[in-house]
Amino acid sequence: MKQLGLKATQSKVTLWQQVRIPFLIVAFSSLMLALGKSIVNPPASAPPAFTFPSVIPLPGWQPLPSSPLPTNPQSQQQPVEGRHYRYIQNSSSLEIEMRYLVNTDGDVKTLIQNYTSIPLTSLNLSSELRQQQGVGSYLLLTDQQRAYLSACINPHGESTVTREQFVQNRNTNDLQPTRLLSWLLGRADLRDWRCLWAHLSIPLSKALPESYRALEAAWVSWDQKWTRFPN
Amino acid sequence: MKVPYLPSVRLLQKPEAWLWAIAVGLVAFHLNLDWRLTGNIDRLSISVFLWGALGVLLWRRRRCTLDLESGAFSSFLGLTLMALVLLRGVFAYRPDDALHEVLPLFSILGFGLLASGMKGLKQYGQEFVVVVLLALPQTYLSILIENLVQVKLLTAKLSAFVLWYLGFEVSRQGVYVMLPTGSIEINLSCSGLEPMFTLLRLAVLFLVVFPAVRIKKIVVPFVAVFIAFSVNGIRIALLAFLVAFSSQEIFQYWHGGSGAQIFSVISILSFSWFYRSMLRQDEAIRT
Predict the structure, then answer these.
(1) For site-directed labelling of A169, which of A113, B83, B199, B201 has its Cα 20 to 30 A away?
(2) Mutation site for B-interface testing, chosen from A31, A102, A109, A112 by largest number of B Cβ within 10 Å
């Protein structure tokens, strides 16, 4: 009995030893297949570009022709798609710069510094963070006879201004099971770090609170036009 | 008549040959993946270094000390792990996520199981250190470290000090270094954490491949981090100077272009020089 048992285990071991080489050959071949596929794969592609509509109707405002923004204002920045929209209303004019950022920390003040000519001093001295139910947060500021409204339109959740607000939105809205799967496969990040950065401005002809009110009114209807992000 | 036995055929009947082939294929796969997803030459070169070191360590021991027996269960488990990594590698198209950075850890663990089985993993202590260095989730560690020690601020202080010492009219506000005609902000990618990681990896690599005296083992990583930090601080001072007194093009050259590479070469060379002279000192004491 004992001898038989011993024999059985011995033959089992030799069986695996016999199988091991073919097993390794299979492993090697599949590795070569994967390597081949990986080499043929194109390099990491840029995420799909955002096509900005050329005309966006804005209640109470008459649109003027819009134009694409330069994609790369300072070469240290990632190229960014953007569009410059212009509107008029009686004697007043409204300018809106929209930019589609794919990997951002959502800090609007940094964005303003990187993409506009507004100096740090105006940004620090005049800026004011406000919040509105159903729309979200936005930043108001003035510089050189213009009033500005700046905010980040989020893929999910209300608009944000600070990094903390943006991250908060990511953590509460983005962590879904479907995202987890594509994250495991390396096809998406766990959180959606995209933002449509809206930078509105009007000339500061009237009193400051009045200009801010005009900007806020335009902002509420503008925000509603940007609900869909490309997949 | 006897047919002469071809040595290469006999070699192919041994698991060793196939294991080495798989190892080489795995390295090629990871390097290709790194290159395809990040396109970062710095990261690729440090990966080449580390994979090379791993190869050297294993090759040195190939004759006698490597136990290359593995059971069916371990082999299947190992193959599954490797297959998962390969699958992800083939499908992935997004650069820079934490999972991509720690991927080598899984594939090498899988390979270890395939080669030596569960019990055989113990023999790879030294190699494990190199693998951990290879699979450091650098992007996320950078953010963590920045939150703990504020490297940006320290870098700003150092570069402001360098400029002040050279007689410039410099002032600093948080992470902003300001000269009368221009200022720079130090962000995370400029804070020197990346060169610090690179030199730290190089340091541990040197320690594994060219062992030093025990006390020095503790000092070496600190020296590496210090060299990387100082060289970066000087680079930032130069950048502030260029913003204030030079053109945008020259700034770009030193900020992200070939000029930036010169500084990483400087820090790697000075660390290598330090390590070499330290080893020489050791030898002098021994003889």
Answers:
(1) A113
(2) A31
